[in-house]
Amino acid sequence: MRMAGKPVIRAAGCVLWRRSDRDGRPEIALVHRPRYDDWSHPKGKLKRGEDALRGAVREVREETGVRCVPGPELPTVCYPVKGRPKEVRYWAAEAAPGRSDQPDRGFVPNDEVDRLVWLPPEEARERLTHAHDRALVNAFLDAVTT
Question: Is residue 3 part of a domain?
Answer without folding.
Answer: no
